[in-house]
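Record pair follows.
FIRST:
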Amino acid sequence: MARRRTPRETLAKRALIRARELAEEVNQTAERVHQHAREAYRLTEIARREAERGRELSRAGRMEARAVANSIKSSVDVTNNGGARRATKNDD
C-alpha cells in the first residue's frame, strides 16, 4: 500500500517545484539581460566608429573651407593690387 504524504512533505515538494520554476525564470532573465548587454556593446562600438568618422569628416571639411577661404583671399589680394582691372566701354 502506498504511503500518504504528510502535509509537511507536500508543502516541501510544492516549495521545491516553485523554487525550480523560479530558478528557470531567473536563468531566462539572465540570458535576456546578457543578450541585451551584447547588443548594447555592439551598438556602442558602431556609435564610436561613426563618431570618429564624423570627426574625420569635420576635420576634412574645415581644411577644405580654409583652402577655399585662402584661395578667395588670394584672388581678392591680386585684384586689389592691380592684377586685374575693370572692363570699360573703350575696351571694345
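SECOND:
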Amino acid sequence: MESVTKSRQTVCLEQGVDDMVDFIFEKDGVQITAVMTMAAGYDYARRNGYTVVSAVEQYTEPTEEDDVNAMLVDHEYRITLIELGLIEW
C-alpha cells in the first residue's frame, strides 16, 4: 500500500476549493488521515466502513507570499484582458 502525503495547500489547489477539512478515520483500530471536503470525507467513511474520529477545518491567515501571488495573478489577468481587447487601456 502506497502512502502519499500532500500539504493542505497542495490538495486545495488540486481540488480547486478552499473548504478542505483534515479528517482522521479509524477502522479495526487503525487510523488514517486525509484532507478532503466535508461531504467527500463522510461519503468516503460511509462507503469504506470507516469511523470519523475527527474532522477539523483549519483556517490559516494568508501569508505575505499568498498576497503577492494573488496580486500577480490579478495583474496578469488584467494584462490578458487588455491584450484580448476586452477592456480599454
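COMMENT: Strands lie at 20-27, 30-37, 51-56.
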